[in-house]
């Protein structure tokens, strides 16, 4: 009987199905698109950076000796670091891989240096790491515009595109670096990269780990270990676990980019509110249509009850009608959302050096589709509850008396 009501009242059924489908389509579209935009932003802003950096902890301040003389109140200040190298970095990397969500690790040595180009000096940041391991952290291969990266030797240097423009350097040129340890070494330009971040491309150079250890006189030690996670939003939790377990100092990208994290939190709150109000609007519309349906079928309901139909049976009929409408609408909405996103994801925009990016970087997350359909079905069933209760409480005597 419920299915007959759905199929015979095609106009009402079409209207309610369209309301459910529109809500599901909107929820899927908003959530998948915003997830893709967030992923694009994170990749562009911290794609070449570590999610967590592990370093030697700051030393505790040493108290003054008790000389027996009059003491004075003073502020306690941190001591300057006496040592900032991590010993046996290979063993530390193995330990770090035992923590959850850790995907890649790379021991590194870095610091400030001067790049000499003729009579000019350019301040640069040197990052030294094994290219294979560092690739898991920075994914620099996708940003290379010339030369090589993974196969560089201890005498090769990889620089940013903006820095090469500022200094006039090109592939194969030789250049000298003077580190903060006043060690001077000559390198050959082996590769040029462009991440799209001016701060990185204009002042960063990459060398091998061994070359950086020689340039900054660290021996076989490392100054930090970079960590890439499979979920960047777990950075704070994992960094706290590392500090508590190993007693090392950690720096999380979520702390360094707190304003960005707050902006994403506000964006997530906005999409949740949009989804909620979309479902609410759809539920009110469906409830109104089903109430009209109950009024139209009041005579039929009265006849059924006069023939012995129970209240719970009438309630079940209209509840099932709402269930059928919700399932059909959810399926139609999911298919519509998938089709719309697939079409939009095919549009491209011109990026750097002839590369192309998606104009609408959506992520087709199955969880979003499932939750959107489930939420719509629950909201529709709740919306059909009031009309179903009204139908169940219909007095057959009053209905038949009214004609």
Explain what this protein looks like in three dimensions:
The structure is a single chain. This protein is α+β, with helices and mostly antiparallel strands and about 400 residues long. It is about 50% helix and about 20% strand. The chain has 14 helices and 12 strands. It has a 6-stranded mixed beta barrel with strand order 2-3-8-5-7-6, surrounded by 4 helices. The two termini are about 25 Å apart.
How is the topology of this model organized?
Elements: H1 2-8, H2 10-46, E1 52-55, H3 89-96, E2 102-117, E3 120-129, H4 131-138, E4 144-147, E5 156-160, H5 161-167, E6 174-179, E7 184-193, H6 198-201, E8 204-207, H7 209-215, E9 224-229, H8 235-246, E10 249-252, H9 253-256, H10 258-296, H11 298-306, H12 311-345, E11 348-350, E12 356-358, H13 366-392, H14 396-402
Parallel strand pairs: 3-8, 5-7
Antiparallel strand pairs: 1-9, 1-10, 2-3, 2-6, 2-9, 4-7, 5-8, 6-7, 11-12
Helix pairs in contact: 1-12, 2-10, 2-12, 2-13, 10-13, 11-14, 12-13
Order of helices and strands: HHEHEEHEEHEEHEHEHEHHHHEEHH
Radius of gyration: 32 Å
Shape: elongated
Low-confidence stretches: none
Q: What class would the helix/strand composition place it in?
A: alpha+beta
Span between termini: 23 Å
Q: Mind describing the biggest β-sheet? A: 6 strands, mixed, barrel
Overall average pLDDT:
82
Contiguous helical run count:
14
- Strand element count: 12
What is the helix content? 40-55%
Structural domains: how many: 2
């Amino acid at each position: 009987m419920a299915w007959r009501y759905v199929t015979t009242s095609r106009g009402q059924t079409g209207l309610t199905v369209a309301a459910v489908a529109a809500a599901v389509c909107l929820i899927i579209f908003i959530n998948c698109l915003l997830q893709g935009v967030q992923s694009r932003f994170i990749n562009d802003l911290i794609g070449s950076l570590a999610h967590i950096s592990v370093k030697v902890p700051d030393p505790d301040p040493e108290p003054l000796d008790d000389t027996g003389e009059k003491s004075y109140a003073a502020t306690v200040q941190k001591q300057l670091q006496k040592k900032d190298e991590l010993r046996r970095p290979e063993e530390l990397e193995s330990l770090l891989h035992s923590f959850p969500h850790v995907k890649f690790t790379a021991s590194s040595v870095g610091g400030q240096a001067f790049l000499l180009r003729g009579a000019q000096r350019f301040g640069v940041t040197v990052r030294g790491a094994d290219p294979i391991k560092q690739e898991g952290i920075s994914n620099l291969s996708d940003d290379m515009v010339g030369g090589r990266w993974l196969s560089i030797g201890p005498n090769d240097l990889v620089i940013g595109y903006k820095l090469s423009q500022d200094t006039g350097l090109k592939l194969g040129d030789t250049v000298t670096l003077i580190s903060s340890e006043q060690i001077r070494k000559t390198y050959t330009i082996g590769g040029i990269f462009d991440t799209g971040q001016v701060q990185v491309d204009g002042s960063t150079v990459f060398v091998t780990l061994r070359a950086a250890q020689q340039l900054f006189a660290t021996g076989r030690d490392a100054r930090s270990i970079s960590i890439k996670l499979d979920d960047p939003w777990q950075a704070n939790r994992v960094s706290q676990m590392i500090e508590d377990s190993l007693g090392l100092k950690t720096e999380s990208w979520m702390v360094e980019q707190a304003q960005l994290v707050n902006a994403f939190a506000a964006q997530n709150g906005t999409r949740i509110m949009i989804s909620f109000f979309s479902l609410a609007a759809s539920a009110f519309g469906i409830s109104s249509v089903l109430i009209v349906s109950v009024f139209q079928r009041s005579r039929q309901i009265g006849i059924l009850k006069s023939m012995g139909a129970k209240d719970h049976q009438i309630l079940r009929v209209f509840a099932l009608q709402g269930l059928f409408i919700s399932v059909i609408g959810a399926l139609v909405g999911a298919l519509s959302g998938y089709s719309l996103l697939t079409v939009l994801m095919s549009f491209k925009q011109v990026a750097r050096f002839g590369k192309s990016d998606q104009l609408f970087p959506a992520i087709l997350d199955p969880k979003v589709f499932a939750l959107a359909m489930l939420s719509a079905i629950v909201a529709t069933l709740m919306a059909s509850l009031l009309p179903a209760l009204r139908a169940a409480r219909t007095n057959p005597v009053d209905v038949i008396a009214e004609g």
